[in-house]
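Why DUF3243 domain-containing protein? Reviewers of the renewal asked for a concrete example.
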Amino acid sequence: MEIGENWHKWKEILGNDVGLGEKMGLDEETINNAAYHLGNFFANNFDPANKEQRLMKELWDEANEDERKSMAAVMTRLAHKASNH
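Here is what the prediction returned.
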């Protein structure tokens, strides 16, 4: 199974990466900025593999830059929380 096909696995991997960034000393703003750039990359280069990713892409495409930054920050918190359980 590809990672993109499993929403929960994708959140866990992203959460682990957020935790690794924190261990490396990256602050929340830096992590959120990286998530924002990653979100742009995925939105511009990949077709969503599941309904959750499709929803995220539709929201991302509709959002302005500030809203996208907020979405990225919320997604990193959600993923980090998921990886700690």
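The mean pLDDT is 85. This is the kind of structural detail the renewal will allow us to pursue systematically.
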